[in-house]
Amino acid sequence: MDKLIRAIETLRSKVDGLRRHGLKETPTRTIVIDPLLEALGWDVRDPDEVQLEYPTVDGKSVDYGLKLNRKCVLLVEAKAFDDPLTDVKAITQIVNYANSNGIVWCILTNGLTWKVYRSIENCPAPDKLMYEVSIDARNSEGMSVEQIAEKMWRFSREEKAKGTLDALGEQTFTDGKVRKALDTIMVAAPRSFLNVVREAIGDQTITPQQVKESLSRIWQGPGVGATVSGDGGSARDRSETDPTNTTKKKPRIRRAAKSESSHDEAHHISGKPKEAVELYRAVDRLCLSMSPGAVARRFLAKHIAYLCDKRSFCSVHLNQGGLRVWLRLKYGRLTNAPNFARDVSSVGHWGNGDLELGISSLAQLKDAEPLIRQSFEGSDG
Fold first, then answer.
1. Is residue 247 situated within a structural domain?
2. Residue 249, in any domain of the structure
3. Are 129 and 197 members of one domain?
4. 232 and 296 share a domain?
5. Per residue, what are the HEC states of 224-245?
6. pTM for this structure?
7. What tens digit of pLDDT does each residue of 279-295 get?
8. Which strands make up the sheet holding 322-327, listed edge to edge?
9. Domain residues for 202?
10. DSSP letter assigned to residue 41
11. Tens-place pLDDT, residues 119-139
12. In whole angstroms, what is the distance from residue 99 CA to residue 79 CA?
């Protein structure tokens, strides 16, 4: 991975200059994509390993077909350096090419951003986006070069041979389907399920309706989409100002009632990669479990705040690379702070707290869990 880290650092230093040249697809491949594929262990000069202009079943071709044992396992379609990679037709095309050819994985890239799709999922092509990663510092704020390299390394030749990406994709999409099913069960539980819970409780005085209401409270938490009065948020929360705004704080404005709120969960997860959404879901479940029925969510323009007794202990912002999480902890008081944590006490940011975590994988979330609990408990360590 060291070679990949060096390649990312080298290309990062050239991004502004390359932008000025307005690179079309061919020079983007030569100058940016080829070196990164090489750093990922794919020999672009060996047609048994990387087939250029890989033919598809309909007689078209994809820019790269990456092979293991001479069998294509990953398609990569290149675009111009300044292409936003948002064209639904282009996304659908590469995903359908992969699916039609029996290839699970495909990537759409402009050299800077790499969007990884799992073609076999039964959903619209854009929703098959597993994750994306960008080497551009402007699009990967809060992520170190090492974190970026780790996410790219998943589709390296070495990790593809190990089945790492396959296992991660299966887990992430399966978790999403199971969570969706549980949402339905917990909020609108069938009578048979309510009876199972009652039997497990062992108290027949509790009615099925009470069980149903309790499941909804525990699973969703109170205050979903609602605003919170009192001292639940900082001035930054109340005004929802841009982190770089240095103007004088405006007078406090009356909070909107729940029915007036223009932000909800869909506002935050719309268009985000599957992995980022599932990371958020995991944090959501963790925060709600701290005190079932007592932790409230508050959906703001830029982040989601989690509060207990009007005190915000965790703030979450979803981006294309994962999550940025803010906690009410002091970085200097942490013992063995993880490498994805940083002190933002003197840096503008959206959420509450002086500690920011850049979480881009379930492994990092596992390491972050004790810190989230510590923030909930109100201890700086």
1. no
2. no
3. no
4. yes
5. CCCCCCCCCCCHHHHHCCCCCC
6. 0.83
7. 999 999 999 999 888 89
8. 295-299, 304-308, 311-319, 322-327, 355-359, 341-343
9. 177-220
10. T
11. 999 999 999 999 999 999 888
12. 20
